[in-house]
Design goal:
3-stranded mixed beta sheet, alpha/beta
């Protein structure tokens, strides 16, 4: 789980437009500091034993550092993201990269925020809608990737992607979520999964606490969520907290900067 990741870089990271509540063209990130933040994230992944693949960012793609929105991958298949118009130029780069490495690449017929709105949890796919992803994508993901989709509706643009509102802590037993980010039917669906659910406050979640990468042993996350970090340590996990101040000016954190490549294919009866 999350042992093979695709990352880009922050070489061209800037705020050219405003497509989420955290972006303000008048508040530009410090480029050198953002690059150091990203380098520290990659170093933390490597220290945890994760394999890293790298795709250089393109000058015309200021958000390409946030690779999670490019696609969602399972086995040898990848369903591409279909992001807001401001980010459309990123997709051909990822399409080419995935195709050259033998993935069967499927284009999204509807708006889709890639892995940002599609988090693998064993044979389930926690799938967001209500903000950037058209709910019709759920049937596409079920068909193309052979997941059982769990639809989860976030209630405001504050949670523009699902990975700001819920986090997968291990492959099938533990999730963390912010209850206030979801409507009541979605909260019931999460509670109905019968797994360990860690509740995270809206205050900590709004600081990208849930935008993390976990391999079930080591959790790599941003700073600023001490209560949540303590809850993870209480469960025996190693927690690495990193500064993502500059990356947050684009509306992203640790999870946004990594596309998972090792979601296993569906298990078939023998």
């Amino acid at each position: 789980m999350n042992s093979a990741l695709l990352v880009s870089d922050a070489a061209h990271f800037r705020v050219d437009y405003e497509i989420n509540p955290y972006m303000h063209t008048g508040v530009q990130p410090d480029g050198a500091a953002a690059a150091k933040e990203h380098e520290a994230i990659v170093a933390a992944h490597l220290a945890a034993g994760r394999e890293i693949e790298y795709l250089p960012s393109a000058p015309e793609c200021p958000d390409m550092v946030f690779t999670a929105n490019a696609a969602v991958v399972r086995g040898d298949r990848a369903v591409l993201g279909s992001p807001p118009p401001e980010r459309k130029a990123e997709i051909p780069y990822f399409q080419e990269w995935l195709g050259q490495r033998g993935y069967r690449v499927i284009e999204a017929p509807y708006a889709f925020s890639g892995q940002g709105d599609a988090l693998a949890f064993g044979d389930l796919l926690l799938t967001g809608y209500g903000q950037r992803t058209d709910r019709r994508m759920h049937a596409v993901l079920e068909r193309e990737l052979d997941y059982e989709v769990v639809p989860l509706r976030t209630v405001s643009s504050r949670w523009y992607d699902l990975d700001l509102a819920v986090a997968v802590i291990d492959a099938s037993h533990t999730l963390a979520y912010c209850p206030q980010a979801f409507d009541e039917p979605s909260r019931r669906r999460l509670r109905g999964l019968g797994v360990d659910l860690i509740e995270v406050s809206a205050d900590e979640a709004s600081r990208f606490a849930l935008n993390l990468v976990s391999d079930g042993t080591v959790v790599t996350m941003g700073r600023g969520a001490p209560r949540f970090a303590d809850a993870l340590r209480d469960r025996g996990l190693s927690v690495v907290e990193l500064d993502t101040t500059e990356l947050a000016k684009g509306g992203g954190g640790v999870r946004c900067t990594a596309l998972t490549l090792d979601n296993p294919p569906a298990r078939r009866p023998s």
